[in-house]
Amino acid sequence: MHRNTPLRAALRASTLTMAVAAAFGLQSGAGGGLGWATAYAQAEQVRAEIGKPLQAARDLIKAQKFKEALAKLREAEAVPNRTPYENFVLEQMRASAASQAGDYEQAIKSFQALIASGRLPEAEQGRYAANVAALYYRAKDYGNAANWAARALKSNPGDQATRTLMIQSYYLAGDYAAASREALADIQAAERAGQTPPEDKLQLLANVAARNGGDKNAYIAALERLVAYYPKREYWADLLRRIESKPGFSSRLALDVLRLKLATKTMNGATDYFEMAQLALQEGQAAEAKKVLDEGFAAGVLGKGPEAERHKRLLALATQRANEAPQMLKNAEAEAAADKDGNALVRIGLAYTALGQYDKGIALMQQGIAKGGLKRPHDANLHLGIALLRAGQKGRAAQVLKTVGGTDGTADLARLWMRVP
Fold it and tell me: Are residues 114 and 18 in the same domain?
C-alpha cells in the first residue's frame, strides 16, 4: 500500500500467530497418537510386532524427539499386512510427529489419510481438516489452506479460529473477492448482534479495497467502520485525508476539515493550527480562532521555531478580536434580524457557541435556517450540527447532521461528525 496509509498490512503477525495456533493445536486427536485410538481398542487390537515401534515412537514424541519418532514409525510401516486399524494408529502418530518436526508435507498426508479412513465422526473430520488447513498455511500454500478451512467449517461452522485462518488465507492467496466477502459477512453479523467487529477483519476489508483496483469508496467505507469501533488517530488521519482528496470536494470546506482534525486529535503540527486560526478569523469566528491558537501554544506546537513571531502576532490579533466579539456580535445580530435571508444569523449564532453561549447561538442559527434564502443550506445545517455537539447535545446533533446533503463534501463531513467519540 501507499506509504502514507497506516494499514500497511491487513494481517497483523500477532493475529496470525494466534489464529494458526488455535486452528493448528493438533486439535487433540493427534496429540499423543495412541490416546485417541484407544476408543477403538475394545474391538480392534494392534499386533505386538507393530505395537513395539509405535510405543517407542510415542515415547520419543513425549520427549520431543520428533525426527527420531518418525524413524520408528517407518519401522512400524515396514511390518507387512497391516490392518486398517493399525494404519489408522500409525498415521495418527505420524501426523503428530511430522507436524511438530516441521515436516508439513508428511503431516498433511497423514491427516488426509485419517480423514479418508472412515473412522472419524463428522465433527472429528472437521477438526482434522482444520489441522490440514493450518499445515497448508504454515507451508505457505494459501489456496489449499483456504479450501481445507472451508471444508472444516462445514463440519464445525462455529470454529472462529479456522474461519479467521480461511479469510486470511484467501487474502494471502490473492483471492480478494472471497476474503472481502467472508470478512464483511463476519463484520455484519457482529453489527447485527450489537457486538464490536474484530479490528483485524476491518483492517483486512480496507486493505482488500486498496489492493482490489484501488476502490477508493470501499476503502473509505472500511475506514469509517474502523473509526466507529476503533477511533485511533492513524485511522482518523487517513480517513480525513481520503475524504478531502475525493473528486469534487470543495476547498471552501477547509475550515470544517480542520475542525474535524482538531476534534479527532489529528492536527498536522503548527501549519494546521495556524491555518485554522486564520480561516476562522476570516469567517468571523474570532473566539474559535483564539481557542485554536491557545491549544496550539499549550501543546508546544506554536510559538517556537522560525515562525514563532508570526504565531504570536496572530494570537495577539485573535485575542483582540475575541475580546471585541461580544459587542460586535450584538451589533451584528440586530442588523442580521433585518436581513431578508438567514445567512448572517447562522454565522453569528455559530460565533456565539464558540463563546460558550450555546443556547443563544443555537437559537439564532435555527432562526436563520428557518428564515431561508441561504446561500448554502447544507453548510448551515452542518454548522448547526457542530454547534449542538459543542453544546453536548449529541442526540439533537445527530438528527440535524443526518439531514445534511450535498455532493461537494458537506454530506461526508456531517457523516464523520457523527463518528466522533
Answer: yes
